[in-house]
Amino acid sequence: TTEAREEMAASTASLPQTSPAPHKTTAPYGSWKSPITADLVSGSEKRLEGFSVDSLGRLLWLESRPTESGHVAFMRFPFKFPFVSLPFIVALITPLPLRIFRRAVLVREPKRPGDEPTDITPKGFSVRTTAQEYGGGAFRVLRDVLVFSNDEDQRLYKQSLTSDDSTPLPLTPDYGGPVVRYADGVFDSRFNRYVAVREDHRGTGVHPTTEIVAIGLNEENNQEPKVLVGGNDFYAFPRVDQNGERLAWIEWSHPSMHWDKAELWVGYFSDEGDVYKRICVAGGGTSPVESPTEPRWSMRGELFFITDRHKGFWNIYKWIEQNSEVLSVYSLDAEFTRPLWVFGISSYDFIQTDEQSNILACSYRQNANSYLGIIDEVQNSFLAVDVPFTYITNVISEGHFLYIEGASAFHPTSLAKVSLNDHKSKVVDFQIMWCSSSDSQKYKTYFSMPELIKFPTSVAGQKAYAYFYPPCNSDYQVDPEEKPPLVLESHGGPTDEAHGILNLSIQYWTSRGWAFVDVNYGGSTGYGREYRERLLGSWGIVDVNDCCSCAKFLVDHGKVDGARICITGCSAGGYTTLASLAFRETFKAGASLFGIADLKSLSMDMHKFESHYISNLVGTEAVLSERSPINFVDKFSCPIILFQGLEDKVVQPEQARKIYLALKKKGLPVALVEYEGESHGFRKADNIKNTLEQEMVFFARTVGHFKVADEITPIRIENFD
To answer: What pTM, to 2 d.p., does this model score?
Structure first.
């Protein structure tokens, strides 16, 4: 179409210059040498897992450190596992996977500029919750008091932020192990307690019990918490109003995931602190089907929240208690939050609230980019303020500052302190307070900038989206007639999205002369409910078709070499990869990283949070079998490399071995890399490095037809070497 040609013509300029230039080496795409090494990609990188502000206005953040190990635990990893460079230490001393988790530490900004930040979490403690498997919301600060979940025993602890003796003291009972988990808590000053979601694994049922409970802040007693709300399958966002009179919360039930259908409730506290009266504010009826989230009380006692009742986009609303009416604060075809995979999301906050008005700061996602927005409720005005981030996750307001977590094509995940002018219309100061990988900026001249592309799907008139990264290395030039090879990635989740931010794993490929495309196939988040629900009942069809359509689109527009297009993915993305290779003939080679090949086996061993997820995405048991690549190994027709952890309890190693043996027998080039001590997701830096290098060499040898610049000893490829 004309639109597509214009889009692609505008982005063609980003390909490396093909005309001769001084001091440049002429070499084929894919054969370039790059300083972005696999060691760099797999090396140390901190992760941000939450942040807050103390009574003195000093920032606190929770960072996990690959150089410090936390507790030793047995762990069955859940379904949605992102492939990230997290070099966990792994030791195998029993038949089950034994994990030593990276330690998560709360850190406080220094008193004076130039000083070093201070660790708040004492040695022997690690701040982490495993509630709902994915955790989040592991701590909360009120003035000078900190409450946090400790990783090893999952108990809640209270810690003073000002006392000389800052030893954490337990608040919850000792059950002899991490069988009771807490998350997403808030302080209830009226009753001197902490209100949180509790996930109780002490019962004899198949799944744990989830409730909202109150924990006394008198650490001397360690009494059994009081149940405030229970009876449903899942709870999140318990939030107490400023007077301690009302409690808001989110709940949902099987078979829905939170983003499918949920309810917002408000309960009233009795003089004894019990919830004696309840009102369903949103989501209780059959229409509209909505998924409310993130309730928050203003200082005036008004309840704000986010829901997607307006055209399927998550927007901010307000509850009018007097007549139980829900009003839109501002309507926009954009997503003001994201799926509830983890607890503790904070997509908006109040930056000014008085008798006349509320002014909110919020993050929102529109047309694949994130923005920082300012909403004046009374004026009904909305303004996007300019910040360097193109992807923003969490926002909090404290005093005269905003604190935002975000990233961009140049910035790795970072935490910034933002000052606005008096009119709240412009950023006057933007300061990076924390960065996940400060060393990455040394290589910015090699970074490929992502280009958002919109391509036609197999459904007439329908579009899907992707981020295209052209090859980029200023040290090289190429033959004008050559097109680059392509690596297409199908993201995990599958209810997740590619973000178009700095990812050294992608830059590893592009700085060596590969093109890379990260596809937001139908079912991805960030584009509204209608787009997200394209995948319901169609996993293995819509995602596969969209990945194939994206590859064809790039080939048709002369961006890549159609004879050298490869596909890769891990976990759920690995399923899309294997399904694409089994049921289509678009790709010339593929790599599956602990990819799901047997949907039926997966659905039988899911934890509670996702126990109905596969059924929603695929359907009946018969359909599970029909869409499982493991049952159609005879249909594979191109080279495949498989990477598999031998302690994987989600994707059994036998699945990869069956595919490997079938392709070997069929005469197709195939390689299998198995890792001792690894589970569903690779943690060891050496294994992450080896996976990245061997995947690249495999593609280079089987379809690239060039020699890589790196000194890598390739593994044996059956039916090829």
So the answer is: 0.89
